[in-house]
Amino acid sequence: MIAISNSGESSEITALIPVLKRLHVPLICITGRPESSMARAADVHLCVKVAKEACPLGLAPTSSTTATLVMGDALAVALFKSTRLYC
After folding, report:
1. Given strand 28-31, what is the order of strands in its sheet?
2. Cβ contacts of residue 49 below 8 Å, gap of 6+?
3. What is the Cα–Cα distance from 17 to 14, expressed in whole angstroms?
4. Rounded to an integer, what distance in angstroms lies between the CA atom of residue 55 and that of residue 61?
5. Cβ contact 67:50 at 8 Å
6. Which candidate, 13, 25, 69, 84, has a CA 20 to 30 Å from the CA of 4?
7. What pLDDT is recorded for position 87?
8. What is the mean pLDDT of residues 15-42?
9. For residues 32 and 39, is the Cβ–Cβ distance under 8 A?
10. Phi, psi (rounded to 5 degrees) for 58
C-alpha cells in the first residue's frame, strides 16, 4: 500500500497500520515528517519535506503538494521502466 500524508499522523491512515502489519501488507509512506508515526511504521518511507509553503500565509499546502506529486510521478516512471514495457 502507498499512503500519503504530509504530517504523517493522519488518523485515517495510522488506524490502518496495525491491520496492514497483521496482514503482512508492505507499506510505503510518503510524508513530510521522517519522525512521524507513519514514517516509523513504514517498510519504505519517502520524505517530501519542504522548508516552507509557497503560500504567503503558510496555510495552503502548495510546496508540499507539489513535492508529493513529483515523488508520485517518479514512482510511476520507475515502476513503468521496471516492467520493461516502455520504448
Report:
1. 2-5, 28-31, 44-47
2. 32, 33, 34, 67
3. 5
4. 7
5. yes
6. 84
7. 58
8. 97
9. no
10. 70, 20
Q: What is the DSSP letter of 25?
A: -
- 40 is written with which cell numbers? 516509523
Q: How far apart are CA 77 and CA 79, in angstroms?
A: 5
- Please state, as a whole number, how many other Cβ atoms lie within 10 Å of the Cβ of residue 32: 19
Residue positions counted in the chain: 87
pTM of the shown model: 0.87
Extents of the domains making up the chain: 2-82
Say if domain 2-82 classifies as CATH 3.20.20.210.
no
Q: Which residue has the cell 508515526?
A: 37
pLDDT tens-place string over residues 52-84: 999 888 789 999 999 999 999 999 999 888 887
